[in-house]
Amino acid sequence: MQSFVQLPRLLPVFPLENAIVLPGSRLPLNIFEPRYLNMVEDALKTDHLIGMIQPSDNSRIPRLYQVGCAGRITRFEETQDGRIEIILSGLCRFRIQEEISCLRGYRMVKPEWKEFAQDFEESEPVAEDDIQHMLSVLKSFMKCNGMDADWNLLERMSASELASTMISILPLRSSDRQMLVEVESLEDRIHAFTAILNDCLDDRHNQH
Question: Alpha helices of 17-109 — where are they, by DSSP H?
Answer without folding.
Answer: 34-45
